[in-house]
Amino acid sequence: MKSIWSKIFESQRQSPEKSNREIGKMLDIPASTVNYHTNRQKERNQYEESLFWESQSGQNFLKRLIIGVLYTFGIKGVPYDTTALYPPHFSNIYIKDLTIQETKNSIRVFGWQDVLTENISFDNIQIKSAKQGLRYNFVKKLQLKNVSINGKRQYGTYEKQQKGELPPEQT
């Protein structure tokens, strides 16, 4: 399922002679929505290099980058120092429509005692085989919607700040 802005961008590339009103009618969306996304696109594309991110290749690159970061820091578990002077703050992350066949760790979300990880949402995630289930700590508002781990449905909003419980890398 493509986002509205990618449909608009694709339509404008295929039919540059069409007006925003005509593109709106063709896509069955209001002309004001087409105008809004077209103006936002112009703001994003002030530099020639920015056009790459609008393309399917650019979108695929960003998705792979996000999955790589999640794998490295969330699933694989890179050792990190909780006494760092400025520990990173992860927030407002939304992950949707993933199917994972097999993994050691299913979903792991950890923050720091003084810097919580917050507003993390998983929607429509299916993990068919995982050795470890959901694990989290120092998290505020971890939302699971339509998540299945080893065939067991997980849903709801979770929070946890339990001192003394560290990720396995730190014990």
Q: Topology of this structure?
A:
Layout: H1 4-14, H2 20-27, H3 31-44, H4 51-54, H5 56-76, E1 91-105, E2 108-110, E3 117-132, E4 135-137, E5 139-149, E6 152-160
Parallel strand pairs: 1-3, 2-4, 3-5
Antiparallel strand pairs: 5-6
Give a verbal description of the structure.
The protein is α/β, with parallel strands linked by helices. 34% of the residues lie in helices and 33% in strands. It has helices spanning 4-14, 20-27, 31-44, 51-54, 56-76, and strands spanning 91-105, 108-110, 117-132, 135-137, 139-149, 152-160. Strands 1-3-5-6 form a four-stranded mixed beta sheet, with no helix packed on it. Strands 2-4 form a two-stranded parallel ribbon. The longest helix is centred in the middle third of the chain and has 21 residues, at 56-76. It is elongated and about 60 Å long. The termini are far apart.
Task: Please give a handful of descriptors for the protein shown.
6 strands; elongated
**Percentage of residues in DSSP E strands:** 25-35%
**Unreliable stretches:** none
Mean pLDDT over the full residue set: 82
The number of distinct helices, counting runs of at least 4 residues, comes to 5
Q: Give me the count of strands.
A: 6
Strand order of the largest sheet: 1-3-5-6
Structural class: alpha/beta
Distance between the termini: 42 Å
For the sheet with most strands, the description reads:
4 strands, mixed
Order of helices and strands: HHHHHEEEEEE
Helix content: 25-40%
| Shape verdict | elongated
| Subunit arrangement of the protein | single chain
Radius of gyration: 20 Å
